[in-house]
Amino acid sequence: MRRILAVSVVVFLALALVLTSCAKSEKKVVAKVGKISITIDELNKVFGDRPYASFDEELKKKKERLDMIINERLYLAAAYDNALDKDTAIVQAVERDKRSFLMNALYEKVVVEVVKVTPEEIKAYNDALGEEISAKHILVDKKELADSIYNLLQKDTSDANFTKLASQFSTDPGTKDKGGDLGYFKRGRMVKEFEDAAFALKVGEISKPVKSPFGYHIIKLTDRRPVQQPPLDDARKAELEKELRMRKERERAQAFVDSLKNACEFKIAEGFKTIQPKLSAENPLTLAAGEDSIVIATYKYGKLTGADLKRVWDYMPPARKSEVVANPEANLRDLMFNEIQTTLLEKAAADLKIEETPIYKERYKTALEQEMVRAFKDKFIYANIQVTPEEVQNYYDTHPNEFIAEPKVQVKEIQLATKQEAEKILKQAKSGNFEKLADKYTLRTYTKGRGGDLGLFPRARFPELFDAAQNLKEGQIAGPIEMGGRYSIIKLVKKEPETKRPFEEVKRMIENKLRMEKRKSAEEAWLNEARKKYKIKINEKVLRESINAKKYEKQAPAPAPAPGK
To answer: How far is CA 404 from CA 123, 390, 498, 499, 505, in A?
Structure first.
């Protein structure tokens, strides 16, 4: 069943590569490496919140994770000592990713900092989740078709008519053969436009066409029933707050992008009239010489040309093209928005002085320091590491078991639904025409047209077929073989025994393995010396306080030592 799941359509959600957190960062320092501080917030972000058996176990694991961060800070301290933060190549590499930091910080500024979730909203959302509905829908690409179907349903609102029209017209492959039935769902499962319309209906009522990112829906509500909810305790509230925040952030982000679109002063230029007659819903856009540079539209910060239009047009679905052909004045701006949205977002970031915000500076600094550490390792730790051809050959000769290619078989297969069908086809297959029977009857669709050929495969892929093939000679047929509730007939093409992989095939893999081992040894040696050079201080009190001890209070106490021990 295809679910019309809620998805974000906001571009800069994708550009915000590092998701920002709505929680306030804790600035408590849990460790220092020379002059570089490590906050408990940094540790918590990478440590996660998985459960542990005891307080002591969590503390132990957290110390191990902190030790890994300390190692990275040792590299960073050395990188600063070598002035890599001023290295031109490193700074230029970070500058190339500047847009992603801008978009992330812009998202934080205009979405995360704006969205609030109140206790009242959490309770109302919890109450709303105490109900679920079942519905049917018919999904089509064009509004005219949706209106026509809706008119037909007004004349006959029966389930039989809805089922017939869904099977005939719906473009939803997961539901069209089931009369458009979506089953039961709660709030938060569908895109907002669909959800709002569906939950507003009465049982048996049919909606007017509803536009969503997927097309136009006609929805029929078939049932509404209460659902038992878990207790609204602190854990449940936190879960619902997270869900609500995500929904509100999507809505806020969409509203922000829409505001940019509406204020961008998009205007269709005279040059569009030259290209408009060539627009076709069925064909790519073909431009004559010079038409790629014709200005088809202008906006607040620039212009769009025929080349821009062709780039978008040739990848648009026919239904979307039809809308533009029918009414370009109403639809061209939305069609071309992908071409200008990055510019609009960058201008918005500039207007809001995003580069001056703490979140942007933090993202930039993090990226710079990551690049510094990478460069430091390459220049000062890995620079002299080499793997010689003799070392590679020696490893190949002394580790033969690592390069054994497992045995494989190649078979042709006819897969059938029942044992009875398989036994019937087996008789026909033994009489000849195995390949034709496979093309006609096999349920494994990707082997149709190939005579049922599964190609060479090891036992791990199809163990039942592999085992059955071991008892066959080339050209022999066996079956039925039960596998995953279906039944297979196979014809052996060939067997490949266990062999040692050729040196040339694995040479690069061995070289990489040896290089990684040498790098690891070099890192360990360097870190041992760095720990002597740089002062490391761990705040045990902050580390222990960062663990929620209450969650371990109900555990059974450790057994008392035996008398005399």
So the answer is: 61, 21, 7, 6, 12
Residue range 483-535, pLDDT digits in tens: 988 999 999 999 999 989 999 999 999 999 999 999 999 999 999 999 999 99
Tell me the C-alpha distance between 339 and 333, whole Å. 10
* Residue 546 confidence (pLDDT) above 60: yes
Q: Residue 218 sits in which domain range?
A: 130-226
**Omega before 284 cis (within 30°)?**
no
Q: What is the mean pLDDT of residues 94-118?
A: 93
Identity (one letter) of the amino acid at 153? L
CATH code, domain carrying 162: 3.10.50.40
Two structure tokens written together for 322: 């039809």
DSSP secondary structure, 222-259, as one string: EEEEE-PPPP--HHHHHHHHHHHHHHHHHHHHHHHHHH
- Residue 305 inside a domain? The answer is no
Residue 422 lies in a domain: yes
Tokens of 467: 């085992």
329 domain residue, yes or no? no
> Given this model, what pLDDT does residue 24 score?
45
Domain end residue (candidates: 434, 467, 497): 497
Mean pLDDT value of segment 321-350: 88
Coil vs helix vs strand at 414: strand
Write the CB contacts of 98 (distance below 8 Å, at least 6 apart in sequence): 364
Beta-bridge partner residues of 211: 216
Min mean pLDDT across 85-94, 138-147, 288-297 is at 138-147
Q: What is the pLDDT of residue 12?
A: 52
